[in-house]
């Protein structure tokens, strides 16, 4: 085991409840592990996947079969595209479905004369959600592509 691998694995812990290997080092806001590789900070699950599979395409998403963002068990990781990632999220009901189609249409209609901040307060969502709806970047607008 080289120094990078040793440093990686010392930031993990075997889960007591399943086969996940949990990242106990730094994490982002969504629970994904963050690993420093030189001067660069990378996702821990992506690092280990590409370390084990060096010929895999780095443009792929690395998905979890266990739906645990902290998991770095290579047996729980697989490469897939954004479409597959969205399909899995829809199937497993992991997407934010707080707003209805009607509410999204209202946000778009009012978007011309209301601020994102006021709309976010009204619908109890983040300002970034309002901006994504305005730019048609939310999953609901892309669900027809699936």
Characterize the structure shown.
With 146 residues, this protein is an alpha+beta fold. It has two domains: 3-91, Homing Intron 3 (I-Ppo) Encoded Endonuclease, Chain A, CATH 3.90.75.20; 101-145. It has helices at 3-9, 44-52, 82-91, 101-110, 116-123, 127-134, 139-142, and strands at 12-14, 21-23, 34-37, 40-43, 61-64, 77-80. The strands form three sheets. The chain has a two-stranded antiparallel ribbon. A hairpin with a 6-residue loop joins strand 1 (12-14) and strand 2 (21-23). Helix 5 (116-123) packs across helix 6 (127-134). The protein is elongated and about 60 Å long. It starts with a helix and ends with a helix. The mean pLDDT is 84.
Task: Give descriptors for this structure.
146 residues, alpha+beta, Homing Intron 3 (I-Ppo) Encoded Endonuclease, Chain A, two-stranded antiparallel sheet, elongated
Helix content: 25-40%
Biggest sheet: strand arrangement: 1-2
Helix-strand sequence: HEEEEHEEHHHHH
Low confidence ranges: none
Distance between the termini: 42 Å
Class derived from helix and strand content: alpha+beta
CATH class of the largest domain: Alpha Beta
CATH architecture of the largest domain: Alpha-Beta Complex
What shape does the CA trace take?
Answer: elongated
Gyration radius, to the nearest Å? 19 Å
Biggest beta sheet summary: 2 strands, antiparallel
Please tell me the total number of domains. 2
From the 3D structure, determine the CATH topology of the largest domain: Homing Intron 3 (I-Ppo) Encoded Endonuclease, Chain A
* Average pLDDT for all residues: 84
Provide the β-strand percentage band. 15-25%
- Number of helices, where a helix is a run of at least 4 consecutive DSSP H or I residues: 7
Find the count of extended strands (DSSP E, 2+ residues).
6
């Amino acid at each position: 085991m080289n120094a990078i691998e040793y440093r990686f694995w010392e930031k993990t812990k075997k889960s007591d409840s399943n086969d996940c290997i949990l990242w106990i080092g730094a994490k982002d806001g969504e629970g994904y592990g963050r690993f420093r590789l030189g001067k660069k900070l990378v996702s821990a699950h992506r690092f280990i996947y590409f370390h084990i599979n060096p010929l895999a395409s780095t443009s792929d998403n690395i998905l979890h079969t266990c739906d645990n963002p902290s998991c770095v068990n290579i047996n729980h990781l697989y490469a897939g595209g954004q479409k597959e990632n969205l399909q899995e999220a829809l199937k497993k009901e992991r997407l934010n479905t707080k707003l209805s189609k009607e509410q999204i249409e209202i946000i778009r209609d009012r978007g011309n004369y209301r601020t994102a901040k006021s709309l976010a307060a009204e619908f109890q969502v983040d300002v970034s959600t309002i901006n994504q709806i305005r730019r048609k970047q939310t999953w609901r607008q892309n669900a027809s592509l699936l």
